[in-house]
């Protein structure tokens, strides 16, 4: 937990420095035809019979906006999570795609909702039943704040649902940078 707090504090501090250095009067926001790349850092909390501790993860998002409002993101996350079963670590991988709907796409502050599907892979030592790939559904919300037309900061929360005998719940929360590439300039 201390590592997670330290990593999130460090990332927040770096984001605030970037904000103060990079802010300009440029018209920013979501744009049709825009690609994006987003490195993220965050935490994941498991509920129920999974018996996994809350832990940090690193991830990457690659997006494309079909319109100013609608977009899609491919995602990949990795975390090493401590397990209460056998006092060992479990490697956690998540990969998939989310559809995003952006509100107020032409402004600097762009809230959005997301929903998607993913595969979750637990790579655990033998004897831990959670091993293997699970299909999952996720939904949540996020916000992007465009510092300039070339960089933004983002925050996301997702509720992950998947099955391992029963339906299991996990909450994933992350912060990151968003680097927009291309797209039609807004008038």
CATH topology: Porin
Radius of gyration equals: 17 Å
* Proportion of residues in extended strands: over 45%
Q: Can you count the helices?
A: 1
Share of helix among residues? 10-25%
Q: Give the number of DSSP strands.
A: 8
Return residue spans where pLDDT drops below 50 for at least 5 consecutive residues.
17-26
Order of helices and strands: HEEEEEEEE
Description:
The structure is a single chain. With 187 residues, this protein is mainly beta. The chain has one domain: Porin (Beta Barrel). Helices cover 11% and strands 62% of the residues. The protein is built from 1 helix and 8 strands; from the N terminus they run αββββββββ. The chain has an 8-stranded antiparallel β-barrel with strand order 1-2-3-4-5-6-7-8.
Short structural description:
The chain is mainly β. It contains 1 helix and 8 strands, in the order H-E-E-E-E-E-E-E-E.
Task: Give a quick set of tags describing it.
single chain; eight-stranded antiparallel beta barrel; 1 helix; mainly beta; elongated; Porin; 11% helix
């Amino acid at each position: 937990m201390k590592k997670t707090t330290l990593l999130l504090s460090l990332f927040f501090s770096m984001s605030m420095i970037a904000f103060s250095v990079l802010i300009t009067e440029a018209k920013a926001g979501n744009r049709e035809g825009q690609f994006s790349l987003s490195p993220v850092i965050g935490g994941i909390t498991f509920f129920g019979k999974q018996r996994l501790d809350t832990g940090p993860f690193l991830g990457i998002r690659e997006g494309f906006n079909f319109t100013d409002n609608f977009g899609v993101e491919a995602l990949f996350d990795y975390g090493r999570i401590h397990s209460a079963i056998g006092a060992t670590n479990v490697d956690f991988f998540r990969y998939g795609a989310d559809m995003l709907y952006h509100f107020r796409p032409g402004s600097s502050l762009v809230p959005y909702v997301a929903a998607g599907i993913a595969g979750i892979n637990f790579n655990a030592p033998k004897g831990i039943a959670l091993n293997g790939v699970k299909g999952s559904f996720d939904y949540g919300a996020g916000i992007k704040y465009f510092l300039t037309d070339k960089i933004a900061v983002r925050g996301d929360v997702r509720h992950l649902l998947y099955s391992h005998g029963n339906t299991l719940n996990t909450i994933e929360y992350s912060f990151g940078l968003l680097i927009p590439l291309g797209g039609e300039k807004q008038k």
